[in-house]
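Lay summary. Proteins are chains of building blocks that fold into shapes, and those shapes determine what they do. In this project we predict the shape from the chain. Here is one chain we studied, written as its sequence of building blocks.
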Amino acid sequence: MEVTEEALAAMFGVLGPLLNERQRRLLAGVQAWALGRGGIAVVARTWGMSHSTVHLGISEIDQGPQPAGSGTRSRQVPCGCSSTKPTSIRRHALGG
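And here is the predicted shape, written in a compact code that computers can read:
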């Protein structure tokens, strides 16, 4: 079964708005992987992504599932107060 660029564009048109950036990258990566040779170029062109973004999606799939909180970015959760200091700093200052 051959997948056309029109079919890929239609799928992304439906799913794209429902996904966050990482999910879009993973979906693009798995689609490119499934297409085989030339898949990165086809997906990048069809979905308007850079080749490096699609390649990153493939790399993330190759790495397998990552434990929660293992990302390189720190995630700060707002505490609901009006302080501008991150929650971790306030907790440290309070001895927590």
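What the prediction tells us: The longest helix spans residues 21-35.
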